Amino acid sequence: MADGKVNEKGITPQSENFSRWYIDAIRKADLMDYTPVRGCIVFKPDGFELWERIQSVMDGRFKETGHRNAYFPMLIPESFFQKEKEHVEGFNPELPWVTEAGSEKLEEKLALRPTSETMVGRMYSQWIQSYRDLPVLINQWANVFRWEKRTLPFLRTSEFLWQEGHTAHATEEEAREETMQMLQIYKEVVEQELAIPVWMGQKTPSERFAGAVDTYSIEAMMKDGKAVQAGTSHYLGENFARGFDIQFLDRDNQQKYVHTTSWGTSTRLIGSMIMVHGDDRGLVNPPRMAPTQLVMIPVGPGKLREKVMEKFDPLFDQLKEAGIRVRADLRDESPGWKFNEWELRGVPLRLEIGPRDVDNNQVILARRDTGEKVTVELDRVVEQVEELLVKIQEEMFQRALDFREKNSYLEIETIGDLNAHVAQMEKESKAVGWVLAGWCGEESCESKVKEETKLTSRNIPFEAPVVKKRCIACGSESKFTTWFARAY
Ligand SMILES: [Zn+2]
């Protein structure tokens, strides 16, 4: 892995090689480690803490909207997968199987779950008898397995962590409302907390979840112009209800199938957050997600440390009391070494205080995102930190939004123009970005774009910035205005 192109922090610059930058940045920040099991990583404490913060925000929103958490088994009998034809076809290629226990071969082999619609379907068929049992609103926090050929920490691993919501409703209308509500929650959490702008929209049939009637997604642009599907919400219709015989006696005394939904977000969000905000100096965590929002570092000669600590300690307590996630770095290392380390870890704000600052009744605050430094009076520190954290959060979102706009192409009308655009960008080593294109709805046109340019349809945004009249591939009338991009 030796590469002469790394910077003084040991990180490959983004402009040099974005994927190498990503690996360098997460390793320097100590978020994960590889294991001897291919495609399976350890989430080290700093990486796991990012997940815990995402979890806690998401979980709060799920509960506010009436959902409760449960836990279903990780092993799913093979026969369950056969009950929904598209589902089995979609997931079979990446299922790991348990075939024996001890020295005995199992009568029926068991898959490590790739998702739980089948197990949930089976259980719901036993729990739901009457309209009085509906709706069922359950979420599960769990690990899932998809045996991937090409893996990338946090973004695509063979085992990953996620949440999967599974709901059952009496009517299509209600189930569709639920599907949209959860997509909206995903958008709000990802935009407000992770400071990542997303496009909400519908997936094309070829990109749909295996077994769904309709799949909706939020899609985010990374700093290399590629897309990440950051969350999905599916209206499953009666597909799983028929497969698993989930019927209820309705008010009109008729037996009916329920309408189900499922929705999920995963540890991909960690990878997205890093790829949207990180820079050549390492991670840049948005304040609302940062495990540590402010790190306090005493500076100046050791013999004057006592004088500094007289101000340092009460300030630390004040900040903590104000609810700021603050850490004091009192290790026996040079300030420069500490600055570097906390920069790599993406802590939004650093507070420096030395003997001269004590004399002047002040501290220095340094922003991770812009590098800007401000001098602040001691008795205004808490207030200033609070204001700055809000400001950094807003500006990080705005910067990501500006970047997205700059790398979105709205005026490419034909496949010829698209090929020329891709060639041009590749020649200049620039991001291909996202292309908003008309699409007639034919799968052959979608795959033509994919074959020629490696851009895939991301989603059909609910609110397209412009509406396209002609299909980019065949030139006939466009039915859908669709985002196309290269994706992780
Ligand atoms: Zn077409």
UniProtKB/TrEMBL annotation:
Please tell me which top-level EC class this enzyme sits in. ligase
Aminoacyl-transfer RNA synthetases class-II family profile domain segment(s): 38-286
Subcellular location per UniProt equals:
Cytoplasm
Q: Which PROSITE patterns match?
A: AA_TRNA_LIGASE_II
The Enzyme Commission number assigned here is 6.1.1.15
Keywords carried by this UniProt record: Aminoacyl-tRNA synthetase, ATP-binding, Cytoplasm, Ligase, Nucleotide-binding, Protein biosynthesis
Recorded catalytic activity of this chain's protein: tRNA(Pro) + L-proline + ATP = L-prolyl-tRNA(Pro) + AMP + diphosphate
Q: Which GO terms describe its molecular function?
A: ATP binding; catalytic activity, acting on a protein; proline-tRNA ligase activity; transferase activity
InterPro entries of this UniProt entry? aa-tRNA-synt_IIb, aa-tRNA-synth_II, aa-tRNA-synth_II/BPL/LPL, Anticodon-bd, Anticodon-bd_dom_sf, Pro-tRNA-ligase_IIa, Pro-tRNA-ligase_IIa_arc-type, Pro-tRNA_ligase_II_C
Q: Which CDD domains match?
A: ProRS_anticodon_zinc (cd00862), ProRS_core_arch_euk (cd00778)
Family statement drawn from the similarity comment of this UniProt entry: Belongs to the class-II aminoacyl-tRNA synthetase family. ProS type 3 subfamily.
Q: What does this protein do?
A: Catalyzes the attachment of proline to tRNA(Pro) in a two-step reaction: proline is first activated by ATP to form Pro-AMP and then transferred to the acceptor end of tRNA(Pro).
Q: What is this protein called?
A: Proline--tRNA ligase
Look up and give the organism this protein is from: Marininema mesophilum
